[in-house]
């Protein structure tokens, strides 16, 4: 499915062509963009946009209608990026697209500025159709001088079997060469399965989507010369190292030898690898990071940023965007929300015997809007050459921990409702303490989380209360 949104009304309209799995890549023509105040005149009408005029660029957000993706797409639009969203809706809904559009349009109207383009393809990012999508965002320019094969931005052979019907033999063009350039200047890759518990039961499902999918995808991106990649990683890559009881530094999980200065000012060597990964999900994130680090080491023209999220919570203050998965939620706050709405009778607290102030697990809860802005910071840092290496990992957290009980109390107080709990044993794959050291992101990305746990609770309640039954008297 393909959809373009009208910048002014937010209404979707069918595109003038459709992508179906039976069609060959050559059958695809340029996306039929709706009027966009900012870019309508500039968006090229033909994928074979041969010419010297620069076309508008896009950030491609894969998995962009999910919880973190949707908030990030909104922040991108607010920051004037054109966005192409790819999502197969396996864990999200198309209605999210319209909500993003509404919020972005309101923002732009308020600031009296034009609205960037928002485009959407409902597609599994592992689908062969991704080639066609990328082709439709490519432009071609004619180089007057012959270009050495080694300096071409993509394999010449790829051009001949390419996506857009170009049929040109190398010997036909001794003096002139076609060069492909993508309008997609960066990719943010959110698409993955994310349940620790499910990954233990169904590891292959996780490795196929999270790892194999990404490897294939990277090959395709490389072919199209798209080498600016932001990866959704996770604090789970620290494995049982998280239990050290201190904020986690990025050097606790590296993929090649790294020299760093520790907190006492001593130079140290970080050794590749990590101890005690606790689930196939965590391993899938570690594997993806390792693969990305290897690719960047082999070709320094990649710019790859792995953002290690701690515990994303909260939602957009409007209550229009939030965490609304198709799959059964397993994260703390969505589970609390299901108790608030009455869909679940009680909140299970997994483990009350951790070595923490109240025995419940400590996590670094980061507001999802702060997290979303971390992605914009990563793109900006990469564009400004502030990212120190072709592959670089950053913790995105607040640097401050809260226990599960504190979160429970915070939501109870914000909602004014009793949230019944049941204490149960530890969950497989959990750790007791997981808090970020945030110095690297602050220094290199010029980014810092701003919002508090209270902000998170207020926004979650705002998102949830419409779905709750009429309030009872608070029982506590
Ligand atoms: N939410 C968290 O607590 C958390 C913590 C650390 C890391 N992460 C990572 O952040 C990313 C986003 O997490 P989220 O919470 O927004 O999850 P989510 O499930 O809400 O969003 C993922 C989106 O990707 C889509 N998707 C999944 N597989 C796809 C595929 N093959 N092709 C196209 N679309 C596909 C889903 O439909 C969904 O919209 C994931 O990679 C996750 O592992 C999440």
UniProtKB/TrEMBL annotation:
Pfam families the UniProt entry points to = Epimerase
Q: Where is this region: Disordered?
A: 1-32
Q: Name one GO molecular function term.
A: UDP-glucose 4-epimerase activity
Annotated Polar residues bias: 9-32
Q: Which SUPFAM superfamilies match?
A: NAD(P)-binding Rossmann-fold domains (SSF51735)
Recorded hits in Gene3D superfamilies, A to Z, give: NAD(P)-binding Rossmann-like Domain, UDP-galactose 4-epimerase, domain 1
Tell me the Gene Ontology biological-process terms attached to this UniProt entry: monosaccharide metabolic process
Gene Ontology cellular-component annotations = cytosol
- This chain belongs to which protein, by name? UDP-glucose 4-epimerase
Q: Which organism is it from?
A: Paraphaeosphaeria sporulosa
């Amino acid at each position: 499915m393909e959809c373009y949104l009208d910048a002014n009304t937010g209404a979707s309209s069918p595109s003038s062509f459709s992508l179906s799995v039976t069609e060959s890549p050559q059958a695809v023509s340029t996306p039929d963009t709706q009027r966009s105040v900012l870019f309508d005149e500039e968006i090229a009408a033909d994928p074979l946009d041969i010419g010297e005029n620069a076309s508008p660029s896009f950030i491609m957000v894969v998995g962009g209608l999910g919880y973190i993706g949707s908030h990030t797409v909104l922040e991108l639009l607010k920051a004037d990026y054109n966005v192409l969203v790819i999502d197969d809706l396996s864990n999200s809904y198309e209605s999210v697209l319209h909500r993003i559009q509404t919020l972005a349009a309101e923002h732009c109207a308020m600031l009296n500025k034009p609205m960037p383009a928002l485009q959407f393809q409902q597609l599994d990012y592992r689908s062969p159709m991704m080639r066609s999508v990328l082709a439709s965002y490519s432009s071609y320019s004619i180089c007057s001088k012959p270009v050495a094969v080694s300096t071409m931005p993509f394999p010449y052979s790829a051009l001949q079997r390419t996506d857009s019907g170009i049929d040109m033999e190398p010997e036909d063009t001794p003096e002139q060469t076609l060069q492909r350039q993508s309008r997609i200047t960066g990719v943010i890759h959110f698409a993955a399965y994310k349940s620790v518990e499910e990954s233990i039961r169904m590891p292959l499902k996780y490795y196929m989507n999270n790892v194999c999918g990404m490897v294939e995808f990277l090959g395709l991106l490389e072919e199209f010369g798209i080498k600016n990649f932001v990866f959704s990683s996770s604090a789970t890559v620290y494995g049982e190292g998280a239990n050290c009881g201190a904020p986690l530094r990025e050097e606790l999980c590296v993929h090649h030898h790294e020299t760093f200065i520790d907190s006492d000012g001593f130079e140290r060597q970080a050794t590749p690898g990590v101890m005690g990964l606790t689930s196939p999900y965590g391993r899938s994130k570690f594997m993806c990071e390792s693969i990305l680090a290897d690719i960047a080491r082999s070709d320094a023209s990649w710019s790859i940023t792995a953002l290690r999220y701690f515990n994303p919570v909260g939602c957009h203050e409007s209550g229009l965007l939030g965490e609304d998965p198709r799959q059964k939620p397993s994260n703390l706050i969505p589970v609390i929300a299901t108790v608030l709405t009455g869909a679940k009778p009680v909140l299970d607290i997994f483990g009350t015997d951790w070595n923490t102030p109240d025995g419940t697990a400590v996590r670094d809860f980061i507001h999802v809007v702060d997290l979303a802005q971390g992605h914009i910071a990563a793109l900006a840092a990469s564009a400004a050459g502030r990212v120190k290496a072709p592959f670089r990992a950053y913790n995105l957290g607040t640097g401050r921990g809260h226990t599960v009980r504190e979160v429970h109390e915070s939501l109870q107080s914000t909602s004014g409702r009793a949230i019944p709990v049941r204490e149960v044993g530890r969950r497989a794959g959990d750790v007791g303490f997981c808090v970020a050291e945030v110095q690297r992101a602050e220094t290199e990305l010029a980014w810092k989380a701003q919002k508090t746990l209270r902000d998170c609770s207020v926004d979650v309640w705002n998102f949830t209360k419409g779905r709750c039954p009429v309030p009872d008297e608070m029982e506590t």
